[in-house]
Specification:
single chain, 238 residues, three-stranded antiparallel sheet, Arc Repressor Mutant, subunit A, elongated, mainly alpha
């Protein structure tokens, strides 16, 4: 074996940046890095065992996705979403997914899209019955990803990929609330995904848009009321 072939392959900087990005993205979405957490390039470089270059690239990617926020003096932190942020995220999603639903129905892809959406609806129902809320969350996001992809619009998909990253900051809290209501025998918003998919199957544009709007309005209501309850807690219990 030559000395050249025995030499260890050096991973390119881009690979390190991608690995760090994926790990940080997962930690933010899963809540391991809580809202408000400040991130240090130096500390992250030590933690990952890489130079600061890939760390800096990873942080910039996540800032562009909306999962991190750049602050004065080059500080980077996990965003603390306000009620206005939550409402704005879902306003954007309503516009994007309404456009996607209209496009799907107008293009005659309603039946084909319904079959893909229905698979996720059934998977969500099964996961909810089993109390597997991680799976509920996963199939929920997949449902909406399928809807936008079915539009065939590259630009809608590109915009959706940005706003869905910010949505992931909300979904954990939303799923936790759904789990709590389920345990208490309540089912707020039950059947909304099924109704959306059925309206699309039937080619009912007005019905699909109404169901989508209600779905997102309900999400905003749950998330913002949850914040209000937190604000109302006595300081000693926080």
């Amino acid at each position: 074996m030559s000395s050249e072939s025995a030499r260890p392959t050096r991973l390119p900087r881009e690979t390190f940046a991608s690995m760090v990005t994926e790990r940080l993205r997962e930690d933010i979405i899963e809540g391991a890095l809580a809202p408000g957490t400040q991130l240090s390039e130096v500390e992250l470089a030590k933690s990952f065992g890489v130079s600061r270059g890939p760390i800096r690239e990873a942080l910039q990617r996540l800032i562009q996705e909306g999962l991190l926020r750049g602050e004065p003096h080059r500080r980077v932190s996990v965003p603390v979403l306000t009620k206005e942020d939550v409402a704005d995220i879902y306003l954007a999603r309503t516009a994007l997914e309404s456009a996607a639903a209209q496009s799907v129905i107008a293009s005659g892809k309603s039946e084909e899209t319904f079959r893909q959406l229905d698979r996720n609806v059934r998977a969500m129902d099964s996961a909810e019955a089993a109390g597997d809320w991680e799976a509920v969350k996963r199939h929920d996001l997949e449902f909406h990803t399928v809807l936008v992809a079915a539009s065939g619009s590259r630009r809608l998909q590109r915009m959706f990929s940005t706003v869905i990253s910010e949505t992931r900051l909300c979904v954990g809290a939303l799923t936790a609330e759904e789990a709590r209501h389920h345990q208490e025998g309540e089912s707020p918003g039950e059947g909304t995904h099924r109704k959306i998919s059925e309206m699309i199957r039937d080619g009912n544009t007005a019905g699909a848009l109404e169901a989508l709007k209600k779905h997102f309005d309900d999400a905003v209501s749950v998330l913002t009321s949850r914040d209000s309850e937190s604000d109302a807690e006595p300081a000693s219990t926080r």
